[in-house]
Amino acid sequence: MRHVRYVTKLKLAAFLRAPQQGTSAQSPRAPHPEQIKGLIRMRGVTMTGLCRSWGYSESCIRQTLKRPSPRIEQLIAEFLGVKPQFLWPDRYDAKGKPVRGRSVKP
Q1: Among 56-60, 79-83, 99-103, whose mean pLDDT is lowest?
Q2: 49-64 pLDDT per residue, tens
């Protein structure tokens, strides 16, 4: 299990460091929702099982990947060992506080 955690953190860190085409190297790059789902699966847990273990509906993660939900975002980030602003930089300000209202798509 320790090896899986280390590999997951390495893959996530490498992904977040890689500059996205058409953006500067300084701007944060959000992982694609499928990558977040993949990181969860790499831990040997299904998204449904994870939601159930937290006491939420079976679709809580799927909904959070589409719409902001700070409470679930925090739980997902803790499970993956990162901060929520690394997974959803457009949903958080520079201080790490959730941005209220709708996020602006580029």
Answers
A1: 99-103
A2: 999 999 999 999 999 9
**Separation between Cα atoms, residue 80 and residue 36, nearest integer Å:** 9
CA angle (80 as vertex; 29, 44 as ends), nearest 5 = 125
Amino acid at 105: K
The C-alpha atoms of residue 6 and residue 99 are separated, in whole angstroms, by 30
Quote the tokens at residue 92. Answer: 């958080």
CA angle 28, 36, 91 (to 5 degrees): 45
Fold that domain 2-17+30-91 belongs to in CATH: 434 Repressor (Amino-terminal Domain) (1.10.260)
* 10, pLDDT greater than 90: no
Mean local confidence (pLDDT), 7-16:
59
Q: The whole model's pTM is what?
A: 0.71
Question: Are the CB atoms for 73 and 88 separated by under 8 Å?
Answer: yes
Map out the domains of the chain as residue ranges: 2-17+30-91
